Amino acid sequence: MVGKGDMEGLVRYLVTSLVDAPDKVSVMTRHEGTLTVYEVELDPDDVGKIIGRKGRIIKAIRTVIRAAGGADGAHADVEVLG
Fold first, then answer.
1. Cβ-proximal residues to 60 (8 Å cutoff; 6+ apart), any chain
2. What gap in Å lies between CA 42 and CA 48, rounded to an integer?
3. What are 24-76's pLDDT values in tens digits?
4. Do the Cβ atoms of 20 and 49 come closer than 8 Å?
5. Is residue 33 classed as helix, strand or coil in its secondary structure?
6. pTM higher than 0.85, yes or no?
7. What does each C-alpha distance from 77 to 19, 45, 53, 57, 66 come to in angstroms?
8. Which sequence spans correspond to the domains of the chain?
């Protein structure tokens, strides 16, 4: 199971593994009731790499984060701010 601090680290790991400028990646956590939203801010040139064709990469990242959070009964989502 993944703890709350580890979830942010997991998001950071997944995103920095895909971009050209990993030093510009910033992950912030926002809570909306029972939902935890991880806001990813990154270099504008790398946004396409995170979105992917037809949104496939961001959908896969969201699936991993929801599955990891769901194991603890938490609800999680990922937003890309660019």
1. 52
2. 11
3. 999 999 998 889 999 999 999 999 999 999 999 999 999 999 998 876 677 89
4. yes
5. coil
6. yes
7. 20, 22, 20, 14, 6
8. 4-80
